[in-house]
């Protein structure tokens, strides 16, 4: 066995999910007939719970076009597409030296992510539901910066 | 997390697969050989993406099977250092946490890579497990628990491929080990943030 090209291109979670779906993977009972191995199914099960399951190819192209102004590294763009961060705390560990390189533009970048990868309406209400039941999770105090977003309101609005 | 890799392999096609069209038979055989296996310094093989070239078809004397040289692309799972991944808690002990992605289980967060300060206490239900707590603000008594309920985001610190041991150790051998950290904003259980 010879490895000709170890890295022939990075794949986003969405592309792998799409590839598995094209082979016939799905959640319902037609699993056993599809030509997809059980180990591949484990990957499918994992990916279906990530933001990748809600993305479309057009959304990804759109994001790639629009994020050029922020001069992000390829790894950072890949991370952002895979995680689809909605809050400042989520995007902070992704971008190195975010204050130095982007400063205020981080908010713009976050808005871009939120607009290009919108949450389906069902998820917005379920977020509110989960936070109402939440125990001692102190997510109110952590994020002083981002009180202006829709999601931020829902998290802060439960204030204990 | 995933990327493509171009691999060339000399494949012996068992005669039992001769009834299938060539491409399908080769794909099936490749999947038998590579799927769910770790290739050193490459990563975990997830899936055969496509077949680019098939050459050969020689039959060696004394052998009933034909041998092909196949060039194909494979989807490989290998996170890069600095990537952020969400996983579920598999077990936790005093050395740290172990996370699972469903298809990959050997992700360790050593104790010193948890947010500081952290402490642990023994779990009432499970004798060998402990519950890790992050004491964010000791005056407010603001403690954040790592329980097994939600997803935990971590950043990849390193990916190692320990060499295959000669003798069998007690623990099952892990050919690929990912070490991560929770020590940064936005990392840790999703409900913390």
TrEMBL record, chain A:
Q: Quote the protein name from its UniProt record.
A: DNA-directed RNA polymerase III subunit RPC9
Q: Does the keyword Transcription apply?
A: yes
- Residues in a coiled coil are none
Compositional bias, Acidic residues, is annotated for: 133-160
Keywords of the record, alphabetical order, are: DNA-directed RNA polymerase, Nucleus, Transcription
Localization in the cell: Nucleus
Which stretches does the entry tag as region Disordered?
A: 122-160
Instruction: Fetch the SUPFAM superfamilies from UniProt.
Output: HRDC-like
Species: Hevea brasiliensis (Para rubber tree)
| Gene3D superfamilies the UniProt entry points to | 1.20.1250.40
RNA polymerase Rpb4/RPC9 core domain residues:
1-120
Top-rank taxon, per record: Eukaryota
UniProtKB/TrEMBL annotation, chain B:
* Primary location: nucleus
Location within or outside the cell: Nucleus
Domain RNA polymerase Rpb7-like N-terminal: residue ranges: 8-64
Is Nucleus a UniProt keyword of this protein? yes
Q: Which residues form the RNA polymerase III subunit Rpc25 domain?
A: 83-193
Query: Domain of life here?
Result: Eukaryota
UniProt keywords (A-Z) are: DNA-directed RNA polymerase, Nucleus, Transcription
**InterPro entries attached to this UniProt entry:** NA-bd_OB-fold, RNA_pol_III_Rbc25, RNA_pol_Rpb7-like_N_sf, Rpb7-like, Rpb7-like_N
Is the keyword Protein biosynthesis in the record?
no
Which SUPFAM superfamilies does the record match to this protein? N-terminal, heterodimerisation domain of RBP7 (RpoE), Nucleic acid-binding proteins
What family, per the record?
Belongs to the eukaryotic RPB7/RPC8 RNA polymerase subunit family.
Q: What does this protein do?
A: DNA-dependent RNA polymerase which catalyzes the transcription of DNA into RNA using the four ribonucleoside triphosphates as substrates.
- Identification of the protein by name: DNA-directed RNA polymerase subunit
Q: Which organism is it from?
A: Hevea brasiliensis
């Amino acid at each position: 066995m010879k490895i000709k090209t170890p890295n022939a291109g990075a794949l986003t979670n969405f592309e792998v999910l799409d590839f598995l779906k094209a082979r016939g993977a799905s959640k319902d009972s037609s699993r056993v007939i599809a030509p997809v191995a059980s180990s591949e199914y484990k990957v499918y099960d994992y990916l279906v719970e990530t933001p990748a399951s809600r993305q479309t190819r057009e959304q990804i192209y759109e994001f790639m076009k629009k994020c050029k102004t922020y001069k992000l590294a390829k790894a950072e763009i890949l991370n952002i597409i895979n995680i689809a961060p909605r809050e400042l705390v989520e995007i902070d560990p992704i971008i190195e030296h975010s204050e130095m390189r982007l400063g205020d533009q981080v908010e713009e970048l976050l808005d871009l992510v939120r607009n290009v990868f919108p949450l389906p309406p069902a998820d917005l209400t379920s977020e509110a539901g989960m936070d109402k039941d939440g125990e001692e999770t102190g997510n109110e105090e952590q994020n002083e910066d981002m009180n202006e977003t829709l999601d931020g309101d829902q998290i802060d609005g439960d204030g204990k | 997390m995933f990327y493509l890799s171009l691999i060339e392999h000399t494949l012996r096609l068992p005669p039992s697969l001769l009834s299938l069209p060539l491409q399908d038979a080769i794909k099936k055989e490749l999947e038998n050989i590579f799927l769910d296996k770790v290739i050193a310094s490459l990563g975990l093989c997830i899936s055969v993406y496509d077949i680019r070239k098939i050459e050969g078809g020689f039959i060696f004397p004394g052998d009933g099977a034909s041998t092909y040289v196949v060039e194909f692309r494979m989807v490989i799972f290998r996170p890069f250092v600095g990537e952020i991944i969400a996983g579920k808690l598999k077990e936790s002990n005093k050395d740290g946490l172990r996370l699972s992605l469903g298809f990959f289980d050997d992700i360790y967060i050593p104790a010193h890579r948890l947010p500081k300060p952290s402490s642990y206490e023994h779990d009432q239900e499970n004798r060998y497990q402990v519950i890790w707590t992050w004491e964010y603000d000791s005056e407010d008594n603001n403690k954040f628990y790592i329980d097994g309920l939600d997803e935990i985001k971590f950043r990849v610190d390193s990916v190692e491929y320990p060499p295959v041991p000669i003798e069998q150790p007690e623990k099952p051998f892990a050919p690929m080990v990912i070490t991560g950290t929770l020590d940064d904003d936005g990392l840790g259980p999703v409900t913390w943030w």
